[in-house]
Inverse folding.
């Protein structure tokens, strides 16, 4: 491990590279409504990005009740079904394709680590033109998703880089918290609808608007042109 | 004007009393998409609550272009159409009906002031059980909507109270900014998806989760039980 080396970048997917957070919010809200459950939309928004299991637990707690195993399964299936319907409207965020292409061209190591499943991530990876050689770690491959550090630790491992010389890029406080637990620097993007201050308070090293703004400021992360 | 008197409350509607912000976001995003325009969803979210005219101008600026009069009309019509479709899913926020009922029972003066039109506000006023005697000021009735102060000034006028002895309650920074311009205290609610810090930085006197939390803390605003 050598902290003077150019860092590797470990990207979250939803809200960080693709504009999908609000579709996830609507999908969870519809799934809850279909189960007769009334939870404020903003509370769902602030949970998106965590592991789906933790998210469902958190929603139950905010409703002041417990879900049966059948309800948990129905909620997860409902979310997946509505999100699939909305998925054609999901687009790469401004600058995402260009940023990833520049990193590849310049030989900067990067990977994607998402709390989502391989099935929901697949179409978005295609829209982002992610090369097959780039490591993509999904929920299916680790015991715990964010804010646990496992996804980012696995991504650094797949790249063969030290996590302490990696920069995690994410839109939610769950990404930034996972980055700190993993021992990486966390960088926040506003493109998932969190505020700058929420990300900074969670420990973000820097906060940018979106991938396009990050691309303009790569030198602030120690990636030189 | 007597600052020692119990204040009147001037409420925003969308995101403050009803859980409708995310439906407005989706409606604007769909309207933009239908016009072939690609704007990140979070940027739309952070504009909801301003006057629709200002919002469309702001979206044009963020896209780095100007809209023709036909495009502006198409966007506004598209937003109204999609929002009408989603409106049946809009519910009162937790505690909203109970808070308004308690204020009426205790003789506290209150009104509603919304950047929305009378047509879109109507169904939500019914869900909130707003008595016909309560002043409701909509976009149709003032020259400028938020963050201009006109809506709140008109609401205080209709109640016959001094704006300087009124408390504006809203979920967006546009409410809080309009409150300051009007000379009222602004109170923020998190139920529209803004963060506590954004509302505080905009000048909120206090910030609560939602109407239910506000009801529990009315004494902090000088409304005694």
């Amino acid at each position: 491990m050598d902290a003077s080396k150019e860092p590797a970048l470990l990207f979250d997917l939803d809200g960080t590279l693709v504009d999908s957070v609000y579709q996830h919010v609507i999908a969870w809200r519809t799934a809850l409504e279909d189960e007769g459950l009334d939870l404020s939309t903003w509370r769902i928004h602030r949970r998106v990005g965590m592991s789906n299991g933790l998210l469902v637990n958190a929603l139950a707690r905010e409703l002041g009740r417990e879900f049966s195993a059948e309800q948990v399964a129905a909620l997860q299936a409902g979310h997946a079904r509505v999100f699939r319907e909305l998925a054609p409207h999901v687009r790469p965020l401004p600058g995402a394709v260009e940023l990833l292409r520049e990193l590849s061209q310049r030989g900067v190591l990067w990977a994607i680590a998402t709390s989502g499943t391989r099935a929901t991530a697949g179409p978005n990876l295609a829209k982002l033109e992610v090369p097959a050689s780039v490591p993509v770690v999904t929920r299916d491959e680790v015991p715990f998703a964010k804010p646990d550090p496992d996804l980012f630790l696995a991504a650094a491992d797949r790249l063969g880089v030290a996590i302490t010389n990696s920069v995690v890029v994410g839109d939610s406080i769950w990404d930034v918290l996972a980055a700190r637990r993993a021992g990486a620097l966390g960088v926040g993007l506003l493109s998932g609808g969190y505020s700058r201050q929420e990300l900074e308070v969670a420990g973000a090293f820097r906060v940018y608007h979106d991938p396009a703004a990050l691309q303009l400021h790569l030198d602030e992360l120690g990636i030189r042109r």
Summary: Chain A has a mean pLDDT of 95. Chain A touches chain B at residues 19, 21-22, 25-26, 29, 33, 38, 40-42, 45, 89, 91, 93-94, 190-195, 197-198, 201, 210 (CB under 8 Å). The first strand of chain A starts at residue 8 and ends at 11.
